[in-house]
Design the sequence.
C-alpha cells in the first residue's frame, strides 16, 4: 500500500471509529458495539514497566500506550500521560496530596494514591467565598505543594491598587518568593516536556485512526468540596454544621468548574470530558442529601458543558442504582454514564432514550478470570443492553492495573462480534 | 431511663449535636453519674446503628454520631474512677487496610459500626504488611479478621495476607472477611477469605453470625 492510501485508510478508520462512538452517545445504533480504552498503570504492566517508570519516563510510557492501543484497537482511548506521567513535576513541587510509587516508602510498582485530609479549614470558608483565587494562591497552593509556600507572601491584589500595584512588585524579588517563582517555571518546563511527548503520541495515534475519548477532566462540586477542600470527614460533618456555607461554596463551584473545563477542552481542541465521581454513590449520603448537596450542583455543571458542545463521560463509582431516577434528568443523547457496580439492567431501563451507558466488565474478572468468562460477560452485556444503541463497552472503572493481558484483549475482541 | 437521660439519647439519635453536647455538660456539672450518662449515649448509638442498617441514616450521620460520642466521652471519662468502665466485648475483630493501599474511610466506618455493636476492634491502620496481621492475631486472639482495600492491587495483598495467616498456623481458628472498592465474590474466592461485604452492615452481620452472643 502506498503511503497516501495508508493515510487515507487510517483516516477512514478514524472516521468509522468516531462515528461508532458518537452514534452510541447520541442513542443511535452504530454498526457494532463501540469500545473505550481507559487505564492508568495497566499499560505499564502490559509492557513490562513498573508504575514508577510509567510516572517518570515519558517516552517509555508513550511506547507502552502506543502498543496497547494498536493491540487492542479500541474505538477511542483516554490519554494516559495526564493521569500518570506526573512524577518529575511532583518532585519539583514537593507535592503533598498524593503518595506515589518509590516516594516516601511506597513500593515501586504500586499506583499513586490520594491523601484524604482537610486542605481547607472550617474558618477558611469565608476566605474562599470572598476570593476563591486569592485563597487558592495564598493558602491552598502552599499547602499542597511545599515548594510554593512563599506564594503566601504575594500581594492581596483586590486591595492593592493604583501606585500600590507598582510598589507591590517588591514582593517578587524576595529571595524565597524568587525561589518559588523559579520552581514554578521549572515545573512548567517539565510539564511542557511531558506534553510534547504526549501530543506527539496523540498525533501518531490519530494518524493510525484512533480517536480520543477524554480531552480533559472535570468534577462534581460536592467532590471538590469533599475530596480537595474539606476532606471526607470535614465535608460529611459540614452537611450538619456548615450547611449554608457548603451550599454557597458549591454554588460558586457549579459556575467555576465548567468554566475551567470548557477552557481546557477549548485549548485541547476536543469535545469529550471525563468526570470521575467519588461521593455520589448509594450509601454515602441519603437520597435527600443527594438531591440537596450533590445532584443539583452537578447537574448545572453537566448542563453547562453540554451547552458548550461537550460530551460528558461521568464515571459513577460504586453502586448508584438508587440514584437513577434522579440522574436521568439531562438533555438526551449528550451524556455518557460510566457505571461500576450499578445494576446495568435497571440503568438501561431508567436511562433509555436519554443517556448512553458505558461499562462495566468487573475488575475482579479481568484480574482473576479467564478470556472465556470475559467474552461471555461482554456478549451478555450487549444482548441485554445493546438495543437502540446507547452502550459503550469498557471495564468497570477502566482496565485495572493488574488485569491479565489475555482478558483485556478478549474484552476488546469480543466487541467486534457485537454487531447491530 | 430518667427524663434527662431520655432527652440526651434523643438529641444524639436525632443528630442534634449542639443540644446533645450542651445537655451532657449540664448533666455532668449537676453531678449526674457519668457511667449512666455514657450508657444513654450507647443506647442512642444503637438507634443510630439501626437507622443506618435500615437505610434511614448514611455515612454523614455515622460520622456526626461518632463526633458527638467523642465529645461527650471526653467530658465524662475523666469523672469516672479507673476500672469502673469494664464491659464485656461481644468478640474481638482485627481490622486493617492491606499492604500497598492507603485508603481508610471504609475501614473506619466498619470499625465504628462494629464498635457500636459491642465488638472490640483492633485497628491496625493502613498499608499493613501481612506479618503485622499475623503478629496481631497472636497477641489478641480474635475471632474475626477484616481485610480492607480500595484499590485493585489489594486483591493480591489480601491473598498474601490470608496465606501468611495460614502459614502461621492461625487460619483454622479465625474467620476472614474482606471488603472495599471492587471486592466481590470472585475476589473472595481468589484471596481465600471466608466472606466479602459490600458495606458496613455486611461486616456487622458477618461478625454476629460468626461470633454468636
Sequence:
Amino acid at each position: 500500500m502506498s503511503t497516501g492510501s495508508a493515510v487515507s485508510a487510517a483516516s477512514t478508520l478514524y472516521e468509522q471509529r468516531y462515528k461508532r462512538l458518537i452514534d452510541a452517545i447520541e442513542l443511535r445504533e452504530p454498526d457494532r458495539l463501540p469500545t473505550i480504552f481507559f487505564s492508568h498503570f495497566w499499560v505499564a504492566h502490559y509492557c513490562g514497566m513498573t508504575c514508577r517508570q510509567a510516572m517518570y519516563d515519558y517516552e517509555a510510557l508513550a511506547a507502552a500506550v502506543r502498543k496497547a492501543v494498536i493491540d487492542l484497537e479500541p474505538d477511542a482511548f483516554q490519554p494516559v500521560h495526564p493521569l500518570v506521567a506526573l512524577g518529575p513535576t511532583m518532585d519539583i513541587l514537593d507535592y503533598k496530596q498524593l503518595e506515589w510509587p518509590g516516594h516516601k516508602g511506597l513500593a515501586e510498582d504500586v499506583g499513586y494514591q490520594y491523601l484524604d485530609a482537610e486542605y481547607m479549614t472550617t474558618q477558611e470558608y469565608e476566605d474562599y467565598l470572598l476570593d476563591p483565587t486569592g485563597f487558592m494562591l495564598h493558602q491552598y497552593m502552599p499547602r499542597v505543594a511545599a515548594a510554593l509556600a512563599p506564594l503566601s507572601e504575594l500581594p492581596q491584589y483586590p486591595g492593592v491598587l493604583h501606585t500600590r500595584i507598582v510598589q507591590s512588585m517588591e514582593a517578587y524579588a524576595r529571595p524565597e518568593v524568587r525561589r518559588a517563582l523559579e520552581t514554578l517555571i521549572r515545573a512548567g518546563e517539565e510539564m511542557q516536556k511531558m506534553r510534547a511527548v504526549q501530543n506527539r503520541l496523540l498525533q501518531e495515534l490519530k494518524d493510525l485512526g484512533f480517536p480520543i475519548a477524554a480531552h480533559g477532566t472535570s468534577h462534581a462540586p460536592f467532590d471538590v468540596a469533599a475530596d480537595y477542600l474539606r476532606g471526607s470527614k470535614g465535608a460529611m460533618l459540614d452537611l450538619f454544621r456548615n450547611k449554608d456555607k457548603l451550599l454557597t461554596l458549591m454554588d460558586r463551584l457549579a459556575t467555576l468548574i465548567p468554566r475551567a473545563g470548557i477552557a481546557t477542552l477549548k485549548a485541547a481542541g476536543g469535545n469529550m470530558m471525563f468526570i470521575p465521581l467519588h461521593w455520589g454513590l448509594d450509601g454515602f449520603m441519603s437520597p435527600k442529601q443527594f438531591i440537596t448537596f450533590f445532584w443539583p450542583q452537578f447537574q448545572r455543571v453537566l448542563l453547562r458543558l453540554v451547552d458548550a458542545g461537550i460530551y460528558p463521560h461521568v464515571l459513577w463509582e460504586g453502586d448508584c442504582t438508587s440514584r437513577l431516577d434522579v440522574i436521568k434528568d439531562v438533555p438526551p443523547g449528550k451524556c455518557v454514564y460510566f457505571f461500576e457496580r450499578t445494576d446495568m439492567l435497571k440503568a438501561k431501563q431508567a436511562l433509555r432514550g436519554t443517556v448512553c451507558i458505558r461499562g462495566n466488565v468487573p475488575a475482579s474478572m479481568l484480574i482473576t478470570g479467564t478470556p472465556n468468562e470475559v467474552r461471555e460477560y461482554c456478549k451478555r452485556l450487549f444482548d441485554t443492553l445493546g438495543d437502540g444503541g446507547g452502550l459503550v463497552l469498557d471495564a468497570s472503572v477502566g482496565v485495572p492495573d493488574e488485569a491479565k493481558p489475555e482478558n483485556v484483549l478478549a474484552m476488546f475482541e469480543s466487541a467486534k462480534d457485537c454487531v447491530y | 431511663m430518667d427524663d434527662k437521660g431520655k432527652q440526651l439519647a434523643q438529641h444524639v439519635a436525632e443528630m442534634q449535636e449542639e443540644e446533645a453536647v450542651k445537655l451532657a455538660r449540664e448533666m455532668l456539672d449537676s453531678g449526674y453519674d457519668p457511667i449512666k450518662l455514657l450508657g444513654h449515649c450507647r443506647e442512642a448509638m444503637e438507634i443510630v446503628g439501626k437507622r443506618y442498617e435500615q437505610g434511614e441514616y448514611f455515612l454523614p450521620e455515622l460520622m456526626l454520631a461518632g463526633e458527638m460520642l467523642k465529645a461527650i466521652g471526653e467530658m465524662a471519662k475523666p469523672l469516672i474512677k479507673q476500672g469502673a468502665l469494664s464491659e464485656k466485648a461481644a468478640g474481638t475483630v482485627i481490622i486493617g487496610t492491606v499492604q500497598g493501599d492507603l485508603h481508610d474511610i471504609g475501614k473506619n466506618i466498619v470499625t465504628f459500626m462494629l464498635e457500636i455493636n459491642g465488638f472490640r476492634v483492633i485497628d491496625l491502620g493502613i498499608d499493613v504488611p501481612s506479618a503485622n496481621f499475623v503478629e496481631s492475631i497472636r497477641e489478641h486472639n480474635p475471632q474475626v479478621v477484616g481485610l480492607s482495600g480500595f484499590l485493585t492491587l489489594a486483591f493480591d495483598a489480601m491473598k498474601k495476607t490470608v496465606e501468611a495467616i495460614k502459614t502461621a498456623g492461625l487460619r483454622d481458628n479465625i474467620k476472614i472477611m474482606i471488603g472495599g472498592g471492587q471486592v466481590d465474590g470472585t475476589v473472595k474466592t481468589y484471596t481465600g477469605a471466608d466472606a466479602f461485604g459490600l458495606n458496613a452492615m455486611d461486616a456487622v452481620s458477618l461478625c454476629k453470625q460468626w461470633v454468636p452472643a
User: Anything to note?
Assistant: The CA atoms of residues 28 and 208 of chain B lie 34 Å apart. Chain B touches chain A at residues 15, 17, 56-61, 63-64, 67, 100-105, 151-153, 155-156, 182-184, 186-187, 189-190, 198-199 (CB under 8 Å). Strands of chain B lie at 92-97, 120-123, 144-148, 175-179, 195-197.
